[in-house]
Amino acid sequence: MFRHILCPTDLKERAYIALRKAVQIAHQFNSTITLLNVHPEFIAQREREMLRVSFDGLKEKYRRIAIESRKEMMAEIGNLHAEDIQVDYEIRQGKPERVIAETAGKLGIDLIVICTDGRNTIKDFVTGTITEQVINHASCPVLVIPYPKNK
Fold first, then answer.
1. Is the residue at 106 inside a domain?
2. Per residue of the chain (151 residues), what is the pLDDT tens digit?
3. Residue 37's closest CA among 59, 70, 13, 64?
4. Prediction pTM value
5. Is 65 in contact with 39 (CB distance < 8 Å)?
6. Nearest Cα to 34, choosing from 108, 95, 98, 96?
7. Does the residue 150 lie in any domain?
């Protein structure tokens, strides 16, 4: 039923709650998981040029961030004893809500598993949270795992 699961992660505790559920589902349906880590702080080339930012310095910084992010994602898969599941790791730049929905469409994802991200800012109340926007724009089912309020 669910051959390919997308699990977005910001490498925070709530994302690992969703990952645990994604691993359970993957074991049940023999699914592949794609872990997606989106970095809104990565600046596109056009923006760098406008800001006159050194490309070489940023390129190295982004490379280090990407390597560390991938290591953290791989470590969490190891912690969940999910080595028997095929896991792909994607690191992208951009607005998470947009990149998550676009990636799901491009990869032919059958299910997105994401944890609630809560309303932390006034902007969240006006435009909606990342999770709400993913629900509204995804082309596949979205399983939303509640984040425990006592955390």
1. yes
2. 899 999 999 888 888 999 999 999 999 999 999 999 998 765 555 655 555 555 566 667 777 877 888 899 989 898 988 889 999 999 888 889 999 999 999 999 999 999 986 656 555 555 568 888 999 999 999 999 988 766 5
3. 70
4. 0.81
5. yes
6. 108
7. no
